[in-house]
Design goal:
Elements: H1 20-25, E1 36-39, H2 46-54, E2 60-65, H3 68-79, H4 81-97, H5 101-115, H6 122-135, H7 164-174, E3 177-181, E4 195-199, H8 222-237, E5 241-247, H9 258-262, E6 267-274, E7 286-293
Parallel strand pairs: 1-2, 1-4, 2-3, 4-5
Antiparallel strand pairs: 5-7, 6-7
């Protein structure tokens, strides 16, 4: 894995690739002295992979998420790579061999239905997760109240689906990562040595129509945002360093003090971010997002 520039294998609403420079710039000045990295809302793993690439001092990585199918995908790449890769290659080959767009759409819908059913083999579900992510509309991951993936077909003719060398490097890297399907609060027991947390929770939506909060059928409500802030305060009391990103409510109301009040004892920075996923291309512009830290 040395010198391998691993990068996310998924497209993810709220993914941090376009904020990466600001995130790295906001790490603690002595980050090279840290040895444990914990990321409890893993998503596409952009920050995880960047830290893994750039900071060889980190010896212990812990990631978690409440999205069971997402966590299964990480686990399958780590533990059942050969079967996973064979399955993913089959899906890619069939999709790209279908000549008409209606046929591709039908293949997508058929596999979306399979994905939402009970699948015994984790590697098959993981391959479907990536296939659907790369062929659905805008690379979204959204579920309905029954926890069924319901994003429509994205009309991709010959999508790349995956980068074989990148996946091989991720497989090697994940060998040293503890992967949990659990609530963020359960990661506290993995604190050891000089530990750093990065939190990227589902963002508080700026409007009812701009919410990409539906990664799970359980909503990440204001009560959940407030519970997370209490967990951050608890870590602070233990002298554990953390960085958290979230939406900036001042984009829609300059008087809105929601996060400013919630994290009033900590450092809050507003950074420019480009909307990377929006149903209207004209609505993809720059807004500010929050980076909050206890150092």
């Amino acid at each position: 894995m040395e010198n391998s520039n691993i990068k996310p294998f998924l497209k993810w609403a709220g993914g941090k690739s376009q904020l990466m420079e600001s995130l790295i710039g906001n790490l603690p000045p002595d980050f090279e002295n840290f040895d444990t990295y914990i990321e409890p809302f893993i998503g596409s793993g952009a920050m995880l992979f960047k830290v893994g690439n750039q900071f060889k001092n980190i010896k212990k990585f812990v990631i978690a998420d409440k999205n069971e199918k997402l966590v299964n995908t990480y686990l399958s790449i780590k533990n059942d790579f050969k079967n996973f890769l064979n399955e993913l290659e089959k899906l890619k080959s069939i999709h790209n061999s279908i000549e008409d767009m209606e046929g591709k759409r039908n293949f997508f819908l058929e596999n979306r239905s399979i994905f939402n059913s009970e699948i015994d083999e984790g590697y098959k579900q993981a391959a479907l997760f990536i296939y659907l992510n790369k062929t659905c509309f805008n690379g979204l991951y959204r579920v309905n109240k029954k926890n069924g993936f319901n994003v429509p077909f994205g009309k991709h003719k010959t999508p790349g689906i995956y980068d074989i060398e990148n996946l091989k490097n991720i497989h090697k890297f994940l060998k040293k990562v503890i992967i949990l399907h659990d609530d963020y609060s359960k990661t506290e027991k993995y604190i050891s040595g000089n530990t750093f947390f990065y939190f990227d929770p589902p963002y508080k939506p700026l409007s009812k129509t701009a919410s990409f909060n539906s990664y799970n059928f359980e909503e990440f409500s204001d009560a959940e945002q407030e519970r997370l802030s209490e967990f951050c305060k608890k870590l602070n009391d233990k002298n554990v360093s953390w960085l958290l990103s979230n939406s900036d409510m001042k984009n829609i109301d300059i008087e809105n003090q929601y996060f400013d009040n919630l994290y009033k004892d900590f450092n809050i920075e507003r950074v420019l971010a480009k909307r990377s996923i929006n149903s209207k291309g004209t609505a993809r512009g720059s807004i500010t997002e929050l980076l909050i830290k206890n150092y």
